[in-house]
Write the structure tokens for this entry.
Amino acid sequence: MKKLINVLWAIEKDLSVIASNTEAKENKPLRTSKMTVNVDTDKLAAKILAAIGPNR
């Protein structure tokens, strides 16, 4: 479970960086904002567990 939380935290961090970089490229002022991302959590969890493997 700890690995799953770490992976999800890393994904959130990456999305935040992508959003900031996109705003900077468009010459928009950077601002703090929250992104809402709709994710099929069952599919995401299955992919993460498959990537982690049976030795988790």
About this structure: The two ends are 9 Å apart (CA to CA).
